[in-house]
Prior knowledge:
The complex is a heterodimer. Helix content of chain A is 34%, strand content 10%. Chain A has helices at residues 3-14, 18-22, 82-85, 102-106, 115-118, 131-138, 180-187, 197-227, 233-250, 281-297, 324-329, 346-369, 423-432, 446-449, and strands at 16-17, 46-52, 93-100, 150-153, 192-193, 303-307, 376-382, 395-400, 411-414, 420-421. In chain A, strands 2, 3, 4, 6, 7, 8, 9 and 10 form an eight-stranded mixed β-sheet that branches. In chain A, strands 1-5 form a two-stranded antiparallel sheet. Helices cover 51% and strands 4% of the residues of chain B. A two-stranded antiparallel sheet of chain B has the order 1-2. In chain B, strands 3-4 form a two-stranded antiparallel ribbon. Chain B has a two-stranded antiparallel sheet with strand order 5-6. Chain B is mainly alpha-helical. Classes of the chains: A alpha/beta, B mainly alpha. At the A-B interface, α7, α8 and α9 of A face β1, α3, α5 and α6 of B.
Amino acid sequence: MTARAARAAHKLNRRHLLTALGAGGALAYLGPGARPLHAQTTAARYFVGVYMPHGMAREYWVPRAGFDISYENSSLAPFDDANTFGKSYADQLLVVEGLDVKAGIDGGTTGHDASRALFTGSSQHGKNASIDQFLALEHGLGRETPLASLVLGVGNSAPDLGQCISYAKGGAAVPKLIDPSRTFAQAFAQLVVGDDPAALERVARERRLGKSLLDYWNADLKRLSARAPESERDKLEQHAAALRELEQRLDPQLNGCSPPSAPDASTYPELLAYGGGEPYFDTITNLQIDLLAQALGCGVTHVATLFLADLSRTHLDPQLPDDVHIDVAHRYTSGGRAGGGDPASWLPLARQNRYAHGKVARLLQRLDENGILDQTVLIALSDMGDPNRHSSRQIPALLAGGWGGHLKGGRHLDLGAAGTPHNRVLVAAQRAFDVDSDTFGEDEDLAVTTGALDLA
Amino acid sequence: MRSTTAACWLIALALGACSAPSTPPRESAGPPIAAAQQLLAPSVRRLSVAELSAAASELVQGDVDLASALPPDARQNDFSRSLTQSVDATTLKQLDDAARAIAAKLPLPSEVDANALVTTLASRAFRRAPTDAEVADLRALFDAGASGRAPRDGAELVVRALFGSPELLYETALDSALSSDELASHLAWLVSGLPPDAELRRAASAGELQSGPARRQQALRLLHDSRARFLYRRFIEEWLGLNRLRALAKSSDIAADFPSLRETMLSDTEAAIDDAFITTSGSLQALFASGYAAPNRDGLLQQESFLATFAHEDSSAPVLRGKAVLERLLCRKLVEPSELGIDLVLPQPDPHTTTRERFAQHAERTDCNGCHEQLDGVGFTFENFDAIGGFRSEEAGKPIDSSGHITLDGVTLTLGNSVDLSRALAASQELEVCAARQLVRFASGTQSSAVEDDFVAATRRLPDTDRTTLIGLLLTYVEGDWFAKRSLQ
Lengths: 456, 489
């Protein structure tokens, strides 16, 4: 037994999962480093989408010859930083350059609004689910897990345009959890009980009454759905899926991992951007990342997204100005591929990019520690290329993890200046989950939504 | 004059902030309004967080605020009354967690009559009398919860059931004509922001709400409730986009404690809105060109809340301010730069030039000046207000030029500053028409151009006092078929 597995087994002795109740006490323990049950398949099993703010400083983002991402001031350096993240993840990183958010551009959803299009492949007028929700609810990746998906953010919980990447079928934004305590409560709290008989009885009662409640709500929703107009079907189906998900939580089928402890809320007394939360964003982000990875590792869910904060007024990096949005992103002056611009404006944006990339690297590390990185499809995108121009062309795209063998990492894929629809990443991602379709998203031009990027 | 005097009188009573006019309100509804030619589609609207708070307060007869317990509202056109609101797993779990907490507020007698309790709770939750079968289902839940425990445990399970019930969560309009219960519910949520009260439910039971004039009278009556003021504040704030202010920051160079300052700004605006409703039933003239006390300020557009919302962190924003006026107050559709293939570039700061000089480059670029001719002509009139709405007479050592222009009702007007703009807007038909459209969006929870066009056409035939006041427009809407009927096409 490895030291890590021994620590996990020790934790299990102190806790019981509801799984133990559901399976008559027979707990299948695989350990955090063990392969998932279906490791023999080549289909990916986990999806993680990340939103990174403020575009990129191309000058310090493009890998150099030999996939050198550790050159001076490189914003991608965290992916090759074994000292900080345990090992280099360069081999599991594909840096894709030359993608445009064409569906967003075609539908008037660009700049700060373009996050709406990143994982839906559609403009704000689209009705399809984002790929995370599609995989979880329509493809069935979340059908048998306690949570169909985990949608997280930092600093802003509003489901407004430009503040979300996860959308349900029909077009409604899926609310983000921005409080690590609530993330823990949603993902783990009800799955962990004490050893004493009173606690076990309490859980059994909760389950019994929970089933009664769900029966009551389901009957009510069924009556309403029978009379509801076709135009409201997606909305009510989302409600029905929510009820099914709550039912799954009553009988969670976990893989026997060791759930984390509840986060210490005193370390982040405020949560909201421009409401006093800024000093705690780094702590909150790390906790959200750790909980996300553990939730996937424990089989609580197979699908998650994370919307990173824009860091304005955080003072987290003393070398960055007070207002990252105005004084960094809107001071960036670049000639792009043609060269030129103001070199003094590149470095601050590269530092901001490096911070975001560091969080993605931490996520890779945690997924790796949970033994699921090889089966994970991780896509990290920004809504803009050149943020000063609010341009949703030439956006930075980082594809990471093993993708179940569908991704060849350690490469820089330059698709050129003409601009390739970013939908092709989403089509490639769904293929990694054995989805038999060549399209993803909505656009009047089928060429935008059709075709997959070759990642192998 | 038709209903405006009545509305003013009622609101004055409700707010208690001014003496009521000596003439009592008319009881008659006046001449019939035009029949609706365009109707909304049937709909299922999930209540907003504020409405869910009101529903929870009603359920347990206590004061419940769920703003921090539930995910924020999904809005349409910034309105929290929105058909885009939905119920996902996160929201449902948080609703259930909230229900446990609010159940603890439910007062219970020492001896609990379970049937009476569940009947009362269901009646409050469903905004109608429950059926026998519904009572039986809830009684079974009460018994399950109380089994081996106290009656409060049974009551908690019933509260959880009711608060998570689609019957409570949604406001429905399912058939070609709203049912009497649906009418009562829609009327209460729209006019007072509260669940239907006993009188409204009585009127529903008697079938009275199928009559437009009766709905109008009920709406007037509901304005008695002082809590209704929150709904009108919300309508104005969401119409103008002031709800965005709490999610904005300002440079510490110009505002040391902006979180406190913005609350003061919003309080000032709420007071102005209250005053306009009390004294004029929300007349557009009073709201936008009322001659409010301070020099250089004449209405809501010169309020710091509006000016700070539509500004950058450290500087004014003529484009944002111009866009807000054109889109929100005049309902004009502007083309996004991306739709024209234009990359947006903000002018770089320069301590030697004014904001106006830096933004003037828009007018020089042929691909930009089509829109910016409109935007800047309006936006520049606000240039004597900085990023937090403070008045300024110079910038970068140069005097402020706040002149501008706008075309209203087909006439191009030259403006000296934004006070001129406000007065021109307040006197324009375009503002009246847009106010009517925005009221339909707020009321319906969606945007339907056909229904808006139809309602606007009907309002053009109304007396001035109904056409130019928000209360008049509201009463016209609830009296008409736009409110009470749906198209099944």
